[in-house]
Write a structure and sequence with these properties.
Blueprint: H1 2-20, H2 24-47, H3 62-65, H4 68-75, H5 84-109, H6 115-126
Helix pairs in contact: 1-2, 1-5, 1-6, 2-5, 5-6
Length: about 130
């Protein structure tokens, strides 16, 4: 879990920095390629859906692996529009979802996760 959480929060912060510079397409690509996969893996860990972990595309079958609530939260991480605001909303939604999932996993399994970094990223997104 810790590697997935570290990857997620590091690349989310990188995405936030690109968005702050107005690089919508760079942010979009970075988000979809480097932020979404570890988020989906964290969701799989939380759901216990790890039977095909290695060599298995993270999003494959995710609709069946997650509860309706989590799937709805994940869907909210897709940018609603091709704009800086749409991308900012997607980043915020991803941060909120990942924070909740990481916190749950840490509590359930005594995993370590970069909570301080997560809190800083969420503060940055709130500005």
């Amino acid at each position: 879990m810790s590697r997935q959480a570290q990857s997620f929060w590091y690349y989310l912060l990188d995405s936030v920095c690109k968005l702050r510079r107005g690089d919508q397409w760079g942010t979009r690509q970075l988000f979809h390629v480097t932020v979404v996969p570890p988020l989906i893996r964290l969701l799989r860990l939380e759901a216990g859906a790890t039977s095909h972990w290695h060599g298995y595309p993270a999003p494959q079958g995710i609709e069946r692996a997650l509860s309706p609530k989590r799937l709805s939260q994940l869907n909210a991480c897709l940018p609603a529009s091709a704009s800086l605001n749409g991308m900012a909303d997607a980043l915020k939604n991803a941060a909120n979802l990942a924070y909740e999932v990481c916190s749950n996993l840490a509590t359930q399994h005594s995993y370590a996760w970069p909570q301080e970094l997560a809190e800083r990223v969420k503060l940055t997104l709130a500005r």
